[in-house]
């Protein structure tokens, strides 16, 4: 920690600052002193008022300088509310998109299941038709066999 003796508004002040900051603090004190001199505020009986006035003028100049910088951090009125509203809209849109993606995925899965089900039904229908044909052939063969047996039975009985 360093100790400095500064002169501001015709008065000496002893201040402490971090090591390495001495030049910067001295420069800032010089700016305040110059502003006090420019304002003509060097009357000792109004020292506190003079320093306050100089600080307000410097703060106002700094504020104006920051506003004039392109891309400065000055945010328009209602910025926080608008930002919060837009962030909420983004969250809602994400939720809606996720729901739609889930519905699409479910529909695609359902479509695959439906396609498989239709194909399976077609395969079963084809198998059923073949089985029905085979059953008809077997029934016809069975009738012929029954007729032959009847014929043979009649021939043996006579």
From TrEMBL:
The keyword Ion transport does not apply. Residues 83-152 form a coiled coil. The keyword Iron-sulfur does not apply. GO terms for biological process: cell division. InterPro entries: Cell_div_ZapA-like, Cell_div_ZapA-like_sf. Transmembrane segments: none annotated. Keywords: Cell cycle, Cell division, Coiled coil. This is Cell division protein ZapA. The lineage of its organism: Bacteria, Pseudomonadati, Pseudomonadota, Alphaproteobacteria, Sphingomonadales. The gene is zapA.
């Amino acid at each position: 920690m360093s100790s400095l003796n500064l002169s501001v508004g015709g008065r000496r002040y002893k201040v402490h600052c971090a090591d390495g900051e001495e030049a910067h603090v001295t420069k800032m004190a010089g700016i305040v002193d110059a502003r006090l001199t420019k304002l003509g505020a060097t009357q000792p009986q109004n020292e506190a008022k003079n320093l306050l006035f100089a600080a307000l003028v410097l703060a106002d100049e700094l504020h104006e300088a920051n506003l004039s910088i392109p891309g400065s951090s000055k945010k328009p009125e209602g910025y926080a509310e608008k930002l919060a509203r837009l962030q909420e809209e983004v969250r809602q849109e994400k939720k809606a998109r996720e729901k739609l993606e889930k519905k699409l995925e479910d529909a695609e899965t359902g479509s695959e299941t439906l396609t498989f089900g239709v194909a399976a039904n077609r395969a079963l229908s084809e198998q059923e038709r073949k089985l029905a044909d085979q059953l008809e052939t077997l029934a016809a063969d069975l009738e012929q066999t029954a007729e032959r047996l009847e014929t043979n039975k009649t021939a043996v009985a006579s």
